[in-house]
Amino acid sequence: MRIEQDLKLGFKDVMIRPKRSTLKSRSEVSLLRKFAFLHTGQQWEGVPIIAANMDTVGTFEMAKALGKEHMMTAIHKHYQKEDWAQFIKSVDPEILNYVAVSTGSGSADEAMVNTLMNEYDQLRFICVDVANGYSEHFVDFVKRMRDNHPDKIIMAGNVVTGEMVEELLLGGADIVKVGIGPGSVCTTRVKTGVGYPQLSAIIECADAAHGLAGQIIADGGCKVPGDVAKAFGGGADFVMMGGMFAGHDESGGEMVEIDGKKYRQFYGMSSKTAMDKHAGGVAEYRASEGKTVKIPYRGPVSATVQDLLGGIRSTCTYVGASRLKELTKRTTFIRVQEQHNTVFSD
Description:
The longest helix has 19 residues, at 301-319. The chain is α/β, with parallel strands linked by helices. It has 10 helices and 15 strands. 44% of the residues are buried. The strands form 4 sheets. Strands 4-5-6-7-8-9-10-11 form an 8-stranded parallel beta barrel, surrounded by 6 helices. It has a 3-stranded antiparallel sheet with strand order 12-13-14. The protein has a two-stranded antiparallel ribbon with strand order 1-15. The chain is globular. The mean pLDDT is 94. The protein has helices at 60-67, 81-90, 107-119, 136-148, 162-171, 188-192, 198-211, 225-233, 272-278, 301-319, and strands at 14-16, 33-36, 43-46, 49-51, 72-75, 99-103, 125-129, 153-159, 175-178, 215-219, 238-241, 255-258, 261-267, 292-296, 333-335.
């Protein structure tokens, strides 16, 4: 046993210090990023925000809506081959630049992703997603994905420390997903005691990834647009969100009405709800590590997208970053004990 004494921070612990700026308007800020990926050399350009691969977020409908804004969706892994065929026929090929095919590390998942990637060459991204990215089995699976799909861009995670980022990048991942326990419907930290404050994880993992010409995705923990800006300021190349994209027309999840108000169901993919739906229940050797909530219905996702992107553009104007790429170079975090005035909060 050992104790690390150095400071670890979450989004709530900091704010971004403003700096002089020559920008006159938020409209002058570009949120587009262009990346070249480690193992393929392929390039991608877009707004590096990703809807999470949860079946109450990462839907085909969400992909169509976000793709129009040059934002990504990691499609959840529970669609069937026929669903994919219908989706691909129904969209402009440009939209598929903003779609990732998700997979776990099981044999059925592997067979499905291999089928899709071999049949539809226009699909460029694979998202290999497990709760615990520290297992040898997972690393071996990522290596196998790289061997089987040498021309595809592979996202893999989740981890929270630099040495594991490096191992995954060297093993075949182009982009590493960072975050253990920060999600709004994740209970890993209370069930297991395991986790890492998300902002510090981003800073550490970004440093490791960029040293090897890789990228990271900050996955989870963002409650408001300012948190997304802090993730980018901390060095994240992409930011993935579940809860902020839940509750919309495009999100999926059962719609219910309570006392005349509409709600949509949202749950973690390790929750009892998800395991009952997709795995026949919670296996006897494990516990649920997610919760199920009802989110007030939010209407179309377009309004949330406008609010989110507007907030990030505003962050950039406060620190003088005309492009999103410049934000981390222009960011100085200050530690705080208070974020905002809550006198009129519910």
